[in-house]
Structures are given as C-alpha cells and as structure tokens.
C-alpha cells in the first residue's frame, strides 16, 4: 500500500505536466475618452478632467456643443454613465452629437456646496462651502481649456445630481451667463436649511433676459428634498424672466438612487434633439 501510494503521489505531477494551458487571446483596451491632469493655479495642483468626443470627431470639421458634467471623475462613474447616453444618442439618432466634459471632484462638499452658518453642518463637514472657488475654476480654467483645444460651437450646458444639482442651481441663480442650459437632478436644496431656494427671488431679480434653459427634476425623496424645491419653483413662477425657459418634472416612481438615468436621457433629447429629416 505504501508503494502504491507513493507511486500515485508521484504520478500526479507528471499528469499535470502534460496539461496544456490555452494561450491567452490578444488584448485590446476599450478607450472611452481621454483624461487630462489640468494644472490649476486656483487650486495649486492638477485637477482631473475627462473628455468624451463623439464618433467621427477626428474625421470632420464640425464644431460641437459641450456638456459639462459635475462629479465627472473616472472613479465616480457618472462620466461613463453620461458619455454612454451621449454615445447612444449618436448611434440611434435620438440626439445630436455633443462633447461631454467630466469635471472630477476631490472634496464634494467643499466644491459643490455653498457656505453655511449651520454649526452642525460645519462640524460634520469642516471643509464645506467653497462652491464659489470651484465655479471660478470651471469658468477661468476648465472652459478656456476645452474651448482652446476642441472644436466647440459656443453652446454649453451644466449637469449635476444631488450636491452637483445644488451647484447647478446656485450657478444658474448667481452666474447665469456661464452656461446656456442647466440640468439639476435631485438637487440637494436642503443644504443650509434651504437658504438658496429662499434667496432665489433676489437672485432672479438681477438676471438679464438672455436666453437660458433650466431643467429641474426630483423623485419621491421626502419632505426634506421636496419642501425647498417647492420654494424654488414658487420663486421661479413669481419672478418670470422673458429669456428663461424652465420646467420641473416630478418623478414619483424614482428614488434618489434611481432617478439619474431617465432624467439625463430626457435632458439629452430636449437639449440636443436630432435634426428632423424629410420623407
């Protein structure tokens, strides 16, 4: 038995040695876009900017609209999501070609939230409240970089969800000239007790009549999210601006976690409708 056992034990490696490992097939990376480390004098460091170009960009002389996407870092996944919607619209002809620029966040509450005097928020998020600095970064460094490097047609939009949506609404109210269109999905207007929504009327009174589009949407997300949205909507109705087109779409079947895809898809089709073709 010991001899047999020793024989069997010794035979196993020989059998394994005769097995052949299939050769691995060639690998080709799937390239979605290009990531840039944009040197920022405002932040004193390089910042991540990701760019998706529509198919055919390199083979044409066409100039394109630009969608600037908040939370647009590679690790946050929104860049992959929204650039995928842009590509789908190109492939199936439901929307025009557009350049998608993802702006990564390093500290979301620092960059996307306006200053608060709430001691609880300050204690919990001590770096919060530098949205003005982030807006300067976009206006003075990101937009010039994109406009100088790519073929753009001057048509711009800003999109964000949650805290990104809060930043979109704040930018629309305080710096409306920065973009032609604003898309705020489930904006966190609860921040600082809803102060931005309450102050919206004062900001709207300062707006020029330049054409602007504001798209707002909210899911079934509770009174904390709905109440300040209602205040914002009331201010928009009470301070109508001839050049501003705005609308609010409630999405009662969606939650904060599920609302983004459908809302972004609809926004693409509204902002970048496919050209109508005759029969």
UniProtKB/TrEMBL annotation:
<dbReference type="InterPro" id="IPR029058">
    <property type="entry name" value="AB_hydrolase_fold"/>
</dbReference>
<dbReference type="InterPro" id="IPR000801">
    <property type="entry name" value="Esterase-like"/>
</dbReference>
<feature type="signal peptide">
    <location>
        <begin position="1"/>
        <end position="17"/>
    </location>
</feature>
<dbReference type="InterPro" id="IPR050583">
    <property type="entry name" value="Mycobacterial_A85_antigen"/>
</dbReference>
<dbReference type="Pfam" id="PF00756">
    <property type="entry name" value="Esterase"/>
</dbReference>
<keyword id="KW-0732">Signal</keyword>
<protein>
    <recommendedName>
        <fullName>Esterase</fullName>
    </recommendedName>
</protein>
């Amino acid at each position: 038995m010991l001899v047999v056992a020793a024989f069997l034990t010794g035979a196993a490696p020989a059998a394994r040695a005769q097995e052949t490992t299939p050769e691995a097939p060639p690998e080709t990376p799937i390239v979605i876009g290009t990531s840039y480390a944009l040197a920022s004098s405002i932040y004193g460091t390089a910042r991540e900017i990701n760019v998706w170009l529509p198919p055919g960009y390199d083979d044409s002389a066409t100039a394109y609209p630009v969608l600037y996407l908040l939370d647009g870092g590679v690790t946050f996944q929104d860049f992959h999501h929204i650039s995928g919607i842009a590509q789908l619209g190109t492939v199936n002809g439901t929307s025009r070609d557009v350049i998608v620029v993802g702006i990564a966040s390093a500290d979301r509450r620092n960059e996307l939230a306006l200053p608060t005097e709430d001691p609880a928020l300050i204690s919990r998020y001590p770096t919060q409240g530098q949205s003005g600095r982030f807006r300067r970064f976009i206006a003075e460094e990101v937009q010039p970089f994109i406009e100088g490097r790519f073929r753009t047609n001057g048509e711009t939009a800003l999109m964000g969800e949650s805290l990104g949506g809060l930043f979109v609404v704040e930018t629309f109210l305080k710096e409306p000239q920065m973009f032609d269109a604003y898309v705020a999905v489930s904006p966190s207007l609860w921040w600082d007790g809803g102060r931005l929504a309450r102050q919206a009327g004062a900001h709207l009174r300062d707006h020029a009549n330049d054409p602007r589009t504001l798209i707002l949407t909210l899911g079934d997300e509770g009174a904390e999210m709905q109440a300040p949205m209602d205040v914002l909507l009331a201010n928009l109705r009470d301070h109508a601006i001839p050049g501003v087109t705005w609308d609010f779409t409630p999405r009662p079947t969606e939650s904060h976690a599920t609302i983004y895809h459908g809302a972004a898809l609809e926004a693409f089709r509204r902002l970048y409708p496919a050209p109508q073709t005759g029969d």
